[in-house]
UniProtKB/TrEMBL annotation:
Species lineage: Bacteria, Pseudomonadati, Pseudomonadota, Alphaproteobacteria, Hyphomicrobiales
GO biological process: carbohydrate metabolic process; glycerol-3-phosphate biosynthetic process; glycerol-3-phosphate catabolic process; glycerophospholipid metabolic process; phospholipid biosynthetic process
Pathway: Membrane lipid metabolism; glycerophospholipid metabolism
Glycerol-3-phosphate dehydrogenase NAD-dependent C-terminal domain residues: 184-324
Pfam families, sorted: NAD_Gly3P_dh_C, NAD_Gly3P_dh_N
UniProt-annotated location(s): Cytoplasm
Chain ranges of the Glycerol-3-phosphate dehydrogenase NAD-dependent N-terminal domain: 11-163
Gene it is expressed from: gpsA
InterPro entries the UniProt entry points to: 6-PGluconate_DH-like_C_sf, 6PGD_dom2, G3P_DH_NAD-dep, G3P_DH_NAD-dep_C, G3P_DH_NAD-dep_N, NAD(P)-bd_dom_sf
Single GO molecular function: NAD binding
Binding site for NADPH: 19, 39, 56, 112, 144, 259, 283, 285
Catalytic reactions on record: sn-glycerol 3-phosphate + NADP(+) = dihydroxyacetone phosphate + NADPH + H(+); sn-glycerol 3-phosphate + NAD(+) = dihydroxyacetone phosphate + NADH + H(+)
Protein name: Glycerol-3-phosphate dehydrogenase [NAD(P)+]
Enzyme class: oxidoreductase
Species of provenance: Rhodobium orientis
Amino-acid positions noted as binding sn-glycerol 3-phosphate in the UniProt annotation, renumbered to this chain: 112, 140, 142, 195, 248, 258-260
Amino acid sequence: MRAAMERFETIGIIGAGAWGSALALVAARAGKKAILWGRDAETVASVNAGTGNPRYLPGIAFKEAVSATTDLAEAARANLLLLVTPAQTLRAILRDLAPLVAEGTPVVLCAKGIERATGRLMSEVLAEELPQARPAALSGPSFASDVAKGLPTAVTVASPDGALADAIADGLSTPAFRPYAATDLIGVEIGGALKNVLAIAAGAVAGARLGKSAEAALIARGFAEIRRFSRNRRAEPETLMGLSGLGDLMLTCSSVQSRNYAFGIRIGEGAAVADLLAEGCPLAEGAMTAPVARDLARVEAIDMPITEVVAEIVEGSLALDAAIDRLMRRPLKREEA
Ligand SMILES: NC(=O)C1=CN([C@@H]2O[C@H](COP(=O)(O)OP(=O)(O)OC[C@H]3O[C@@H](n4cnc5c(N)ncnc54)[C@H](OP(=O)(O)O)[C@@H]3O)[C@@H](O)[C@H]2O)C=CC1
Ligand SMILES: O=C(CO)COP(=O)(O)O
């Protein structure tokens, strides 16, 4: 006899930025009690007052009941946790959560990145800091504002425990939000982290007006880099062909709604990366992931020339013209990935 599917009555969402707020709305629409944790008291008060999150989701009304809190312990008591702060903050948040989270709580990683200081994937950070959690990740082509507005969206929810992935997908599904369950957690994480790096490259090509042919070539050869990196980590090739791989790559490399693509456009138009970062531009996870992905690729002897040049551009040691020249003058080779 099959065990009954787990039900999650309360969902704790850690991180009250654009994506955390959108996912809190999804949870509420799915009939769950959504508890949104944020460190910014003003945002929390605004959500509780029914005026939404004007800082991160301006102009979007919160019609569903979301309860917001600055008390991490309150959110940590939920049956299911979604972790939605930027990738580089995950470890610190997990350390705060460690004494508060019950053994066996499912934790869904929603950040898209690789830890810069250690080269760890988000699931590896989770295993180190919160070993009592059951790991999962949610990723795919999904802009927070689209999801918050209730536009149709499909994502992948992956966990090595297939029954858990099914239960999380079921628990978060609404008529407009369609999660597909999967078991290849590593493959899903890699696709989400590396597409941000390539979105910066694609944006730079667009910003420099190098033409649609160049943009398409960049995306296709960038996808080959993601496949090589994934193969080395024994991810399943099919994962990369799905929502969290090709799907998210296409979205992020082609839309000015993407913060990574928009960051790349500014670089292509001639802005200095240091100035962009200093002016406090919106979160561009790829700028943090590129150098660490480049370092991992070197250690693992994986050929990732586009990731290399993005890393050097964000580090300020390579100009865009020189990057293009370097990519175009590489020795000719067979096309296979
Ligand atoms: N936006 C989107 O469309 C999507 C985003 N993602 C991923 O989700 C993750 C979060 O992105 P998103 O919500 O868009 O980012 P935002 O910039 O919109 O929000 C980030 C949130 O994290 C909080 N935060 C930042 N640092 C810390 C910290 N040290 N401790 C606690 N909270 C912190 C911020 O709080 P404060 O305001 O106080 O600084 C803010 O609430 C990223 O990895 C992104 O790639 C994935 C899919 C879609
Ligand atoms: O991951 C995203 C869409 O799937 C959001 O992309 P950006 O972080 O580039 O805005």
